[in-house]
Amino acid sequence: MMTFAKHLGPIAICLLLAFTASPAAAACLGAQSAREAVSSGAARPLGSLAVSGKIVSAKLCRQNGRLVYILSVLSGGSVAKIIVDARSGQRIG
Questions:
Q1: What are the backbone angles phi and psi of residue 47, rounded to the nearest 5°?
Q2: Cβ neighbour number for residue 51 with a 10 Å cutoff
Q3: Residue 62 gets which letter from DSSP?
C-alpha cells in the first residue's frame, strides 16, 4: 500500500500532462509519421536528445514550420515542459 501511495503523485502528474493542451500552433505527428521523420533525418531520435532529467512524455510536432519535440521532463521532483528543435536538438522553449 505504501508503494502505491508513493507513486501516486508522479502518476497524477503524468495524467495531468497527458491531457494538457500542446503549445499553440503545434500539430503533432502520429507514430508512423514520427518514425518516418526520424528515419529520413528530418528529426533526431528521441534518445539522442540531451535533457537534464527523465522524459515522461514526448510528442513530435510541427510548429511554426519546423519539427519540434514537446517534452515533459521530470527533474528534482517537478515536471517541466520543454520544446526542442527536432533537427538540431537545441532547446527552444
A1: -65, -15
A2: 17
A3: E
**What is the C-alpha end-to-end distance of the chain, expressed in Å?**
39
**Residues 6+ away with beta carbon under 8 Å from 9:** none
H or E element: which one contains 3? Answer: helix 2-18
Q: Which residue has the cell 539522442?
A: 48
Matching residue, cell 515542459: 81
On whether the pTM is more than 0.90, the answer is: no
| Contact present, 78 and 43 (Cβ < 8 Å) | no
Q: What angle do CA 73, 87, 41 make, to 5 degrees?
A: 120
d(C-alpha 18, C-alpha 85), whole Å: 21
**What tens digit of pLDDT does each residue of 35-73 get?**
999 999 999 998 899 888 999 999 999 998 999 999 999
SS3 5: helix
Candidates 23, 26, 28, 80; CA nearest to 51 is: 80
